[in-house]
Specification:
The chain is an alpha/beta fold and 302 residues long. 51% of the residues lie in helices and 13% in strands. The protein is built from 10 helices and 8 strands.
């Protein structure tokens, strides 16, 4: 994982530089976000994900190219935006939120490694020395989700959940998201590993003056659930191997208790013995499931 210094400008290119903003009911902020982003890119692409307010109209008035679609969630909106960006042959694509949390002046910093050809994915990090008004409880939650994503995906970042990031044409052609929730940033790390994309980070600033629209605890649980699903799909040997080993270890531990009690009291703890045998069998079967799925996945991805 590479880290890049802050840049003041971006290299020019004949292919367009595009900012992609998925938006759902962001009428309050979308106009200013579009206007600020237009200073640094050629096209601001807003995917209106079934908004029930004036998000689309305000974005168009501010100069954005707007695609309207039924509500499909963040992943569906970004997939639609990536497809449009591919058709426009983007030289670099920047993803940012429509709620004003991200500072558009960081766009050149994110794009520069893409335009230099030194990275396929550049992630903005809130934890690389830049001071931001992030509540401490949110910092703890973000670090926990980052640790879980790093361990599960095999790709190390300091801020896995930040949606402010830039993609190269190679990444743009490779990435398509299957998740239906808000774990798209985590899924991106799995795809980076799968397609062997180079990844780097740059320091960015964020604005947390507004209260979160979603319950942070519920959001965190959704992301963790998404990570577990992706581990099962993308790293079955890791997921089922670790799970099976833990179950088998518990079964063996109970078996040792049964043996010890029989040695002392010369009586068989039948209930504990049955639980021990059941857990041991389940653990072994789970490990073999991981091995089989790993082999099948390796064969299918050749």
């Amino acid at each position: 994982m590479m880290q890049f210094e802050k840049q003041a400008s971006v290299t020019t290119s004949s292919a367009p530089h595009i900012a992609l903003i998925p938006a759902y009911n962001e009428a309050r902020f979308i106009g200013s976000v579009v206007l600020k982003a237009r200073r640094y890119v050629d096209i601001v692409l807003v995917i209106d994900d079934g908004s029930q307010d004036d998000t689309a109209e305000i974005a168009e008035a501010a100069g954005a190219l707007v695609i309207r679609q039924p509500n499909m969630g963040k992943a569906g909106a970004i997939n639609a935006g990536l497809e449009k960006a591919r058709s426009l042959n983007a030289a670099a694509l920047v993803l940012l939120d429509g709620d004003g949390q991200h500072d558009a002046s960081d766009i050149p910093t994110l794009m520069q490694p893409i335009l230099d050809g030194t990275a396929d994915l550049v992630v903005g990090s809130r934890f690389l020395g830049t001071e931001s008004n992030i509540p401490r409880w949110r910092v703890a939650g973000q670090h926990a989700l980052t640790l879980a994503t790093n361990v599960a995906s095999g790709v190390t970042l300091t801020d896995s959940q930040n949606g402010f990031r830039a993609l190269s044409p190679r990444a743009l052609s490779s990435l398509k998201f299957r998740t239906s929730g808000f774990s798209i940033e985590s899924e991106m790390q799995f795809l980076v590993k799968q397609y062997n994309l180079s990844v780097g980070e740059v320091a960015i600033s964020v604005n947390y003056d507004e209260k979160p629209k979603r319950n942070p605890f519920k959001h965190g649980v959704q992301v963790l659930n998404g990570i577990l699903q992706m581990v099962a799909q993308n790293r079955p040997l890791f997921f089922f191997g670790v799970t099976g080993t833990l179950i088998l270890a518990i079964g063996i531990g109970l078996a040792l208790i049964v043996v010890d009690r029989y040695r002392i009291y010369t009586q068989l703890a039948l209930g504990t013995a049955i639980v021990s045998m059941t857990l041991s069998i389940v653990g072994v079967l789970t490990i073999f499931t991981g091995l089989i799925l790993h082999t099948i996945r390796a064969y299918m991805t050749r």
